[in-house]
Amino acid sequence: MSLAGKAEWLGERHLQRLLAALADGGEEARVAGGAVRNALIGQPVADVDIATTTVPDETIRRAEAAGFKAVPTGIEHGTITIVAGGKPFEVTTLRADIETDGRRAKVSFGRDWKADAERRDFTINALYAEADGTIVDLVGGVADIEARRLRFIGDPEARIREDYLRILRFFRFFAWYGDGRPDAEGLKACARLKEGLGQLSVERVWSELKKLLSAPDPSRALLWMRQASVLTSVLPESEKWGIDAIHALTRAEKDLGWTPDPLLRLEAIVPPDAARMKTLAERLRFSVSDAGRLRQWALTAPAEPKTTEAELAKRLYRGDHQGVVDRLRLSLASARARAVEDNDALLEAGGFSRLLAFTGKWKKPDFPLKGADLTTLGASPGPKLGATLKNLENEWVESGFALDRGALLERAAEALES
User: Fold this and answer.
1) Given 98, 176, 221, 384, which residue has the most CB atoms within 10 angstroms?
2) Is the Cβ–Cβ distance between 194 and 229 less than 8 Å?
3) Measuring CA to CA, how many Å separate 96 from each of 101, 354, 377?
4) Which residues span the domain enclosing 390?
5) Where is the Poly A polymerase head domain (predicted)?
6) Among candidates 151, 174, 286, 154, which has minimal Cα distance to 230?
7) 101 lies in a domain?
8) Which residues fall within 8 angstroms of residue 96, CB to CB, at 6 or more apart?
9) CATH at residue 72
10) Which of 84, 114, 147 is the last residue before a domain boundary?
């Protein structure tokens, strides 16, 4: 089998020069892993990694002699990042694990392509491609790609004990590339060894979960994660809440053209409890942005489908815009799923669609008054000025933002005289 006609990027001049430089004098270099997998599946290739028989110092020497920049980003594990034609390529010397602790491995460098393939996680990730596109498959990865089957290489338990993150990667890659049911032996091994997830850094856990939740349709993978009690291990908030809403959400995304949103999908499977969401975000060390969004969603009350646009405008002004949008999207997805057999739900879906369309057009208006306007009227800086300004803003909002600056100044003068 060959990548000919399936991978235009392979013919790129700088990549070919780099492969040639690394393969000179009896050495070998091949494109490895995800780039080969995605090319065969027909999915975009973002990064191109290279495996080579040259040891790291020799990799650096050859790259620089060819005019490329070499950065020793992971030299202790045999990885050098080479910048060729403005693009980074991770070049790694063939390796074999000599010691693992479930989180990281000590490696020895070698020249055995089969040993290098067998230390990887899944068969579909252990494929190589020669510079001319010829596929080198030493573990049955091509057949598994054709069957959309995800399998660990060799003994699943052995692969997992080398790095417990592979439990989450099993479900993540199943979400992206698998079909039907997950491999039975792999699923059993994940269930048996799930306690090992506690050894991982929370950053690695959330990174994998976020990638899984970014898949075109993560619902089947989440279902099997729940069946294996893996989901509860890393996301206990989902245990008594359930994941049924994720099916409706992914269908709505496809039908309505929404971009898959991992945070919205997370919100679909956890309870809208601000305190628990704060704990979740702290435990998994969310970014400030993601933590804030999750908390605001939990604090935002759901809208009713009969809510008027005027009422929604007030909520948008006083609340969090993203929180309102998230609530409406989840409500719309749920109503659409129920509408198949429920006419009332069909009407609800129409209401939520109308409100969502309004949020897309709505722009937050600027309150016409400032504190300086009240001091001009004779108000002294202090709590009374602030309270007066706040009361005036509330009146303005309740008027549907209709009161103009002149009317507000009149009301301000009356308030300050009283």
Assistant:
1) 221
2) yes
3) 15, 58, 79
4) 371-417
5) 29-151
6) 174
7) yes
8) 107, 108, 110, 112, 115, 116, 119
9) 3.30.460.10
10) 147
